[in-house]
Amino acid sequence: MRKAGLDAGFEPFPVAAENRLDAEMASGKLHLAFIPPNANRLALEGRQLIAAIRIPLERGLLGSRVCLVRGTDKDLLKDVKSLEAFRRFKVGQGYGWGDIDVYAAAGVSVVEAPFTSQSAPLRALASGHFDLLPMGASEFQAFLDRSKEEGLGIVADNHIVIRYPWFRFIWVSKTAPNAAALLEGLERGLDIMARDGSFIRIFEHYKGKIDTAVFRGRTSIELASPYAQASDIPAKYRHLLIEAR
Question: Where in the chain is the domain with CATH 3.40.190.10?
């Protein structure tokens, strides 16, 4: 908003399930959320209740997934060379995550678990609630750090990478107070940041420079997404994407 020359203050909304975030945005009680598309969100967009700014906040890395596994199972996926072989395992996901539909469409078993904190899915994995927890290439290290702090014994698999088009966009209410000014200011400011390099500088300040070498030598398991395609990213933002291959 500063880039757009507008003054704005923001307050965090309490941690909530994605379907609640959708409802609060549609009703105008919540101004914006940073979440991937799903069937409900796209339907609300079609009804002009919310709008998406399709800038790839994780620079495309959210759709390249590294699996977290228990340390005792560090080679669990060593022999996985195909989607058929991957289907033998149970994948953990947070309640209501749109990714669930991606895995279900591919015939992969999914176990839903609470995601009220960073620790919650790690504890579910450590307890054997599911076999593996796929996390985006830009986020899995933070979960490993938390696991180490809590002594949960979780490690990153080194054998496969799961890929599907998946982006966290900025969703803005169109019914909240000052919604039009917020949407216009965000779009204008983000366009400036994408052009002047500050988007990438801020990303690297918080996420570091992503070393795509982590993907070398891995078997790629490719999945389709019912809610996103690579072409969703507007041309003005495509240079922000990191090709994690």
Answer: 65-163
